[in-house]
Specification:
Layout: E1 2-6, E2 18-22, H1 25-30, E3 34-37, H2 41-50, E4 55-61, H3 63-66, H4 70-77, E5 81-82, E6 87-101, E7 107-113, E8 116-120, E9 126-130, E10 136-142, E11 151-152, H5 155-158, H6 161-170
Antiparallel strand pairs: 1-2, 1-7, 3-8, 4-10, 5-11, 6-7, 6-8, 6-9, 6-10
Bound molecules: 4-(methylsulfanyl)-2-oxobutanoic acid (KMT) and nickel (II) ion.
Length: 172
Protein backbone atom coordinates (compact mmCIF):
# COMPACT_ATOMS: atom_id res chain seq x y z
CA UNK A 1 0.00 0.00 0.00
CA UNK A 2 1.13 3.48 -0.75
CA UNK A 3 -0.96 6.62 -0.41
CA UNK A 4 -0.30 10.01 -1.94
CA UNK A 5 -2.05 13.11 -3.21
CA UNK A 6 -3.38 12.66 -6.75
CA UNK A 7 -1.74 15.10 -9.16
CA UNK A 8 -4.95 16.11 -11.02
CA UNK A 9 -3.03 16.10 -14.30
CA UNK A 10 -4.72 14.99 -17.51
CA UNK A 11 -3.89 11.52 -18.80
CA UNK A 12 -5.12 7.97 -18.45
CA UNK A 13 -6.66 7.27 -15.03
CA UNK A 14 -4.49 4.12 -14.83
CA UNK A 15 -1.22 6.05 -14.74
CA UNK A 16 0.28 6.76 -11.31
CA UNK A 17 -0.76 10.42 -11.10
CA UNK A 18 1.68 10.77 -8.22
CA UNK A 19 2.13 14.36 -7.08
CA UNK A 20 5.15 13.25 -5.03
CA UNK A 21 3.38 14.23 -1.81
CA UNK A 22 2.85 11.27 0.49
CA UNK A 23 -0.23 10.78 2.64
CA UNK A 24 0.50 9.02 5.88
CA UNK A 25 -1.55 6.22 7.37
CA UNK A 26 -2.76 8.38 10.26
CA UNK A 27 -4.39 10.75 7.74
CA UNK A 28 -6.21 7.82 6.15
CA UNK A 29 -7.30 6.74 9.60
CA UNK A 30 -8.82 10.20 10.15
CA UNK A 31 -10.84 9.73 6.99
CA UNK A 32 -12.11 6.46 8.44
CA UNK A 33 -10.21 4.35 5.93
CA UNK A 34 -8.85 1.16 7.49
CA UNK A 35 -5.92 -0.67 5.99
CA UNK A 36 -4.32 -4.05 6.75
CA UNK A 37 -1.68 -6.19 5.09
CA UNK A 38 -2.82 -9.78 5.51
CA UNK A 39 -0.98 -12.81 4.18
CA UNK A 40 -2.92 -15.46 6.08
CA UNK A 41 -6.47 -15.80 4.76
CA UNK A 42 -7.54 -16.95 8.26
CA UNK A 43 -7.02 -13.39 9.46
CA UNK A 44 -9.48 -12.23 6.81
CA UNK A 45 -11.97 -14.80 8.10
CA UNK A 46 -11.52 -13.36 11.58
CA UNK A 47 -12.03 -9.79 10.42
CA UNK A 48 -15.08 -10.84 8.41
CA UNK A 49 -16.58 -12.59 11.44
CA UNK A 50 -15.96 -9.59 13.71
CA UNK A 51 -17.78 -7.27 11.31
CA UNK A 52 -20.59 -9.79 10.51
CA UNK A 53 -19.59 -10.44 6.93
CA UNK A 54 -20.88 -13.78 5.75
CA UNK A 55 -20.26 -13.90 2.05
CA UNK A 56 -17.54 -13.10 -0.41
CA UNK A 57 -16.69 -13.43 -4.04
CA UNK A 58 -13.58 -13.16 -6.17
CA UNK A 59 -13.48 -10.70 -9.05
CA UNK A 60 -10.88 -10.48 -11.79
CA UNK A 61 -10.75 -7.18 -13.57
CA UNK A 62 -8.77 -7.63 -16.79
CA UNK A 63 -9.37 -7.54 -20.54
CA UNK A 64 -8.73 -11.31 -20.67
CA UNK A 65 -11.52 -11.97 -18.19
CA UNK A 66 -13.95 -9.26 -19.23
CA UNK A 67 -13.37 -9.04 -22.94
CA UNK A 68 -14.96 -6.17 -24.84
CA UNK A 69 -16.62 -4.62 -21.80
CA UNK A 70 -13.32 -4.15 -19.93
CA UNK A 71 -12.69 -0.52 -20.91
CA UNK A 72 -16.31 0.35 -20.19
CA UNK A 73 -16.13 -1.35 -16.76
CA UNK A 74 -12.93 0.41 -15.84
CA UNK A 75 -14.50 3.75 -16.70
CA UNK A 76 -17.60 2.96 -14.67
CA UNK A 77 -15.57 1.99 -11.58
CA UNK A 78 -13.93 5.42 -11.87
CA UNK A 79 -17.13 7.44 -11.48
CA UNK A 80 -17.06 9.17 -8.13
CA UNK A 81 -19.59 7.51 -5.84
CA UNK A 82 -20.42 6.35 -2.33
CA UNK A 83 -22.17 3.37 -0.77
CA UNK A 84 -24.56 3.08 2.13
CA UNK A 85 -22.39 0.30 3.51
CA UNK A 86 -18.68 -0.35 3.99
CA UNK A 87 -16.68 -1.54 1.03
CA UNK A 88 -14.08 -4.21 1.82
CA UNK A 89 -11.60 -5.32 -0.80
CA UNK A 90 -8.79 -7.83 -0.29
CA UNK A 91 -6.30 -7.85 -3.14
CA UNK A 92 -5.16 -11.31 -4.18
CA UNK A 93 -3.12 -10.48 -7.27
CA UNK A 94 -2.21 -7.58 -9.52
CA UNK A 95 -2.73 -3.98 -8.43
CA UNK A 96 -5.14 -1.08 -8.54
CA UNK A 97 -5.94 2.33 -7.12
CA UNK A 98 -8.70 3.43 -4.81
CA UNK A 99 -9.02 7.21 -4.78
CA UNK A 100 -10.79 8.67 -1.76
CA UNK A 101 -11.85 12.25 -1.09
CA UNK A 102 -9.99 14.10 1.65
CA UNK A 103 -11.57 16.50 4.14
CA UNK A 104 -10.71 19.34 1.76
CA UNK A 105 -12.27 17.42 -1.17
CA UNK A 106 -8.94 16.54 -2.81
CA UNK A 107 -8.17 13.07 -4.11
CA UNK A 108 -5.94 10.76 -2.10
CA UNK A 109 -4.71 7.91 -4.29
CA UNK A 110 -4.18 4.56 -2.56
CA UNK A 111 -2.16 1.95 -4.41
CA UNK A 112 -3.17 -1.56 -3.40
CA UNK A 113 -1.29 -4.75 -4.20
CA UNK A 114 -1.43 -8.41 -3.22
CA UNK A 115 -2.30 -8.98 0.45
CA UNK A 116 -3.54 -5.42 0.94
CA UNK A 117 -6.99 -5.17 2.48
CA UNK A 118 -8.93 -1.93 2.61
CA UNK A 119 -12.14 -0.95 4.35
CA UNK A 120 -13.82 2.18 3.03
CA UNK A 121 -16.47 3.52 5.40
CA UNK A 122 -20.06 4.02 4.29
CA UNK A 123 -20.59 7.51 2.90
CA UNK A 124 -17.06 8.27 1.72
CA UNK A 125 -16.78 9.46 -1.87
CA UNK A 126 -14.35 7.28 -3.82
CA UNK A 127 -13.53 5.66 -7.16
CA UNK A 128 -11.47 2.72 -8.38
CA UNK A 129 -9.21 1.96 -11.29
CA UNK A 130 -6.81 -0.73 -12.38
CA UNK A 131 -3.24 0.44 -13.02
CA UNK A 132 -1.44 0.41 -16.37
CA UNK A 133 -0.99 -3.37 -16.20
CA UNK A 134 -4.78 -3.81 -16.45
CA UNK A 135 -4.99 -6.69 -14.02
CA UNK A 136 -6.34 -7.09 -10.51
CA UNK A 137 -7.89 -9.97 -8.60
CA UNK A 138 -9.77 -9.05 -5.45
CA UNK A 139 -12.00 -10.66 -2.88
CA UNK A 140 -15.14 -8.63 -2.21
CA UNK A 141 -16.69 -9.20 1.19
CA UNK A 142 -20.35 -8.63 1.84
CA UNK A 143 -23.02 -9.07 4.49
CA UNK A 144 -26.40 -10.67 3.75
CA UNK A 145 -27.43 -8.49 0.87
CA UNK A 146 -24.71 -6.77 -1.07
CA UNK A 147 -25.49 -3.05 -0.79
CA UNK A 148 -23.03 -2.12 -3.44
CA UNK A 149 -25.21 0.17 -5.43
CA UNK A 150 -22.87 3.00 -6.34
CA UNK A 151 -24.54 6.33 -5.67
CA UNK A 152 -22.87 8.78 -8.02
CA UNK A 153 -21.91 12.14 -6.59
CA UNK A 154 -24.46 14.88 -7.02
CA UNK A 155 -26.70 17.25 -5.02
CA UNK A 156 -29.03 14.44 -3.93
CA UNK A 157 -26.31 12.10 -2.81
CA UNK A 158 -24.54 14.97 -0.99
CA UNK A 159 -27.47 15.00 1.45
CA UNK A 160 -27.87 11.21 1.69
CA UNK A 161 -28.20 10.23 5.39
CA UNK A 162 -25.17 7.92 5.13
CA UNK A 163 -23.12 10.78 3.68
CA UNK A 164 -24.21 13.09 6.49
CA UNK A 165 -23.43 10.47 9.09
CA UNK A 166 -19.99 9.93 7.59
CA UNK A 167 -19.19 13.66 7.67
CA UNK A 168 -20.42 13.95 11.25
CA UNK A 169 -18.35 10.96 12.35
CA UNK A 170 -15.24 12.67 10.94
CA UNK A 171 -15.74 15.89 12.92
CA UNK A 172 -13.65 15.75 16.09
C1 LIG B 1 -15.29 -1.37 -6.85
O1 LIG B 1 -15.87 -1.30 -5.79
O2 LIG B 1 -15.08 -0.39 -7.55
C2 LIG B 1 -14.85 -2.66 -7.27
O3 LIG B 1 -15.32 -3.61 -6.75
C3 LIG B 1 -13.84 -2.74 -8.32
C4 LIG B 1 -13.22 -4.08 -8.40
S1 LIG B 1 -12.53 -4.65 -6.89
C5 LIG B 1 -10.90 -4.12 -6.85
NI1 LIG C 1 -17.36 1.73 -4.42
Amino acid sequence: MRAYWFDNQPGDQRELHDSGRTVDPSYLQNLGVIYHNISDEKDVDKLAAERSYKNRDLITVSPEKMGDVYEEKVKSFFHEHLHEDEEIRYIRDGAGFFDVRSEGDEWVRILLEKDDLIILPAGIYHRFTTDSKNYIVATRLFKEEPKWTPLNRGPEVDVNPFRKEYLQSRTP
